[in-house]
C-alpha cells in the first residue's frame, strides 16, 4: 500500500490520536501541571507501542519524565534516533483564543490547539511515518525515539540523562521535527540554529520604595539606571558593545550569503506582517542574515515600581529585566554568559547594586550540506512536496541539538514542517492538515532513502 492510501485509510484515527495528546495540558513551566507531564508521557508510550515500537517506557529524570521507545531491526543495521518534546507553552492570554486551546478544533483545513505544531504535531508526524513503514514491512534500519518534557524551559534535565544513557541512545543520525519551512509552497530544510544565553537582571537602590516628590532628584532611581544600562548594550549600528562579544563569531562565506540571497523574501510584506514601518539590525547585513546568522540582543521583559491602574508616585526600590542574546555557531554560551554578566555589573554606577543571574541557554548548530543523511532528507522533501527544498539557517534555538553532538557525537537532521502562520507560542496555534500528510510522506521517504545510503 502506498503511503497516500495508508494515510487516507487511517486519517480519522490519526486525528483522534493526536487530539488525545493535545488534550493533556502538559505545560512544563507551570508546576500545577506536573501530573499532566506524567500523563502525556504515558500516552506517548501507548501510541508508540501501537505504532510498532517493540519497547516503550517512561523514564525518570531530575525533572519531568522522558519517553524512550525503540524498534531494533538488526544489531548490525544503522540506527536513526528521533527526538521530540511533549511539553507545551502556556496559553496566556487565554481571551485571544478563538477556541479552547486544549480541545482541538479543525477550521478551514487547520487543526487549532496548543501543541498542534510545537511539538506534539510535528512529533506525531514522525511516529505515524514510522507506523506506516512498520506496517508495510519497509523499515530496514533501527529506530529509537526520545521525547522529553522540558524543552520549553531549556531542557535542564536532558544533558545529565544523555550522559547516563549514552549506550541506550547510541545511533548514527538524529532526526528532529521541531523547526519550520519558509512556506507551504516553499519547502526548506533548516541547516543551522542560533544558540541562546538568557539572564535576569536585578537593580537595587533604596531599601524601600520612596515618595518621588520627597526623594526625586536626590536618589538614583533603579528603573532609570536599568534602562540606561540596557540601552548601552546595542549601539546605533546594531552592534553589541560588550567587549570580546564577537571574538568567536565566524564571518559568513560568500557561498552562504549567495544562498541566503536566493531565498524569496519580500521585505515590505515582512514589515506589514509584523506591523512596523522600518526594520533595524546590524549594519552591513541583510534582514535574513541578521535574524539567522548574526548574534542579537533583546530585552524580553522589564518591570519595576507601580504598574497598576491610575497613578502612584514612587521611586521603586528594585527594577528587573529579562534579557537574552541569540548566539551563532562557535560562540560559547558559558563565555557569553560571563562576558555580559561581568560587563553589566562593571557598568553599574555606585548609586545602585546590580545582580545578574544566568538562567538557561545553549550552543548554536550547523549541519554540513554534504552529509549523506542531509542529502537523503533533501530528496525526501523533493518527493513529498514536488520541489527541491531550500537550505536555510534559522534564528531560533534548540539548545539540545548542540548537546546531542557534544554528548552523543551525532549530527542532527532538522526536518521540520512548521509555518510562520502556525503561531507557535501564541494564541490560536494551528497546523495545516495537508502539511501533516505531506510531512509524514517526506519522513517515510527519508527512511527509505536512508536505507539506500
SSE topology:
Blueprint: H1 3-22, H2 34-51, E1 55-59, E2 66-71, E3 79-85, E4 105-107, E5 110-112, H3 120-135, E6 142-148, H4 158-164, E7 173-176, E8 188-193, E9 195-204, E10 210-211, H5 212-215, H6 222-231, H7 254-261, H8 267-274, H9 287-290, E11 296-304, E12 314-315, E13 318-327, H10 333-347, E14 353-362, E15 365-366, H11 372-385, E16 390-394, H12 399-408, E17 412-414, E18 430-432, H13 433-451
Parallel strand pairs: 3-6, 3-7, 7-17, 8-16
Antiparallel strand pairs: 1-2, 2-6, 4-5, 5-18, 8-15, 9-13, 9-14, 10-12, 11-13
Rough outline: globular
User: What is the β-strand count?
Assistant: 18
Radius of gyration: 24 Å
Regions with little confidence, pLDDT below 50 for 5+ residues: none
Q: Biggest sheet, in brief?
A: 6 strands, mixed
Largest sheet strand order: 1-2-6-3-7-17
Oligomer: single chain
Task: Give the count of helical stretches.
Answer: 13
- Straight-line distance between termini: 24 Å
Structural class: alpha+beta
The overall pLDDT average reads 96
Question: How much of the residues is beta strand, in percent?
Answer: 15-25%
> Helical percent range?
25-40%
Summarize the structure.
This protein is α+β, with helices and mostly antiparallel strands and 453 residues long. Helices cover 34% and strands 21% of the residues.
Amino acid at each position: 500500500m502506498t503511503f497516500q492510501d495508508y494515510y487516507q485509510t487511517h486519517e480519522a484515527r490519526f486525528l483522534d490520536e493526536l487530539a488525545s495528546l493535545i488534550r493533556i495540558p502538559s505545560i512544563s513551566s507551570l508546576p500545577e501541571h506536573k501530573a499532566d507531564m506524567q500523563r502525556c508521557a504515558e500516552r506517548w508510550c501507548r501510541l508508540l507501542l501501537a505504532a510498532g515500537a517493540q519497547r516503550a517506557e517512561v523514564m525518570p529524570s531530575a525533572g519531568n519524565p522522558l519517553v524512550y521507545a525503540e524498534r531494533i531491526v538488526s544489531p548490525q543495521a544503522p540506527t536513526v534516533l528521533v527526538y521530540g518534546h511533549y511539553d507545551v507553552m502556556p496559553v496566556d492570554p487565554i481571551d485571544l483564543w478563538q477556541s479552547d486551546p486544549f480541545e482541538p478544533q479543525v477550521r478551514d483545513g487547520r487543526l487549532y490547539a496548543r501543541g498542534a505544531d510545537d511539538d506534539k504535531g510535528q512529533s506525531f508526524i514522525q511516529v505515524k511515518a514510522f507506523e506506516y513503514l512498520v506496517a508495510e514491512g519497509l523499515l530496514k534500519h533501527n529506530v529509537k525515539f526520545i521525547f522529553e518534557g522540558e524543552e520549553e524551559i531549556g531542557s535542564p534535565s536532558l544533558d545529565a540523562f544523555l550522559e547516563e544513557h549514552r549506550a541506550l541512545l547510541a545511533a548514527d543520525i538524529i532526526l528532529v521535527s521541531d523547526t519550520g519551512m519558509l512556506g507551504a509552497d516553499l519547502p526548506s530544510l533548516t541547516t543551522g540554529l542560533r544558540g541562546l544565553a538568557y539572564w535576569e537582571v536585578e537593580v537595587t537602590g533604596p531599601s524601600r520604595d520612596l515618595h518621588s516628590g520627597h526623594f526625586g532628584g536626590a536618589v538614583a532611581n533603579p528603573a532609570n539606571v536599568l534602562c540606561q544600562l540596557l540601552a548601552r548594550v546595542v549601539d546605533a549600528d546594531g552592534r553589541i558593545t560588550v567587549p570580546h562579544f564577537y571574538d568567536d563569531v565566524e564571518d559568513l562565506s560568500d557561498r552562504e550569503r549567495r544562498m541566503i540571497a536566493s531565498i524569496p523574501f519580500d521585505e515590505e510584506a515582512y514589515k506589514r506582517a509584523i506591523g512596523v514601518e522600518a526594520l533595524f539590525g546590524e549594519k552591513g547585513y541583510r534582514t535574513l542574515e541578521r535574524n539567522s546568522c548574526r548574534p542579537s540582543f533583546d530585552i524580553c521583559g522589564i518591570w519595576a515600581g507601580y504598574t497598576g491602574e491610575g497613578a502612584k508616585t514612587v521611586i521603586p526600590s528594585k527594577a528587573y529585566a529579562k534579557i537574552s542574546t541569540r548566539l551563532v555557531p562557535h560562540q560559547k554560551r558559558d563565555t557569553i554568559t560571563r562576558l555580559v554578566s561581568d560587563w553589566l555589573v562593571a557598568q553599574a554606577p555606585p548609586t545602585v547594586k546590580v545582580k545578574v543571574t544566568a538562567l538557561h541557554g545553549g550552543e548554536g548548530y550547523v549541519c554540513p550540506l554534504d552529509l549523506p543523511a542531509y542529502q537523503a532528507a533533501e530528496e525526501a522533501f523533493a518527493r513529498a512536496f514536488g520541489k527541491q527544498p531550500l537550505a536555510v539557517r534559522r534564528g531560533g534555538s534548540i539548545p539540545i541539538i548542540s548537546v546531542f553532538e557534544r554528548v552523543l557525537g551525532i549530527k542532527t537532521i532538522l526536518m521540520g514542517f512548521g509555518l510562520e502562520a502556525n503561531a507557535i507560542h501564541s494564541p490560536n496555534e494551528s497546523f495545516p492538515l495537508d502539511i501533516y500528510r505531506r510531512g509524514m510522506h517526506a519522513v517515510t521517504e527519508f527512511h527509505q532513502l536512508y536505507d539506500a545510503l
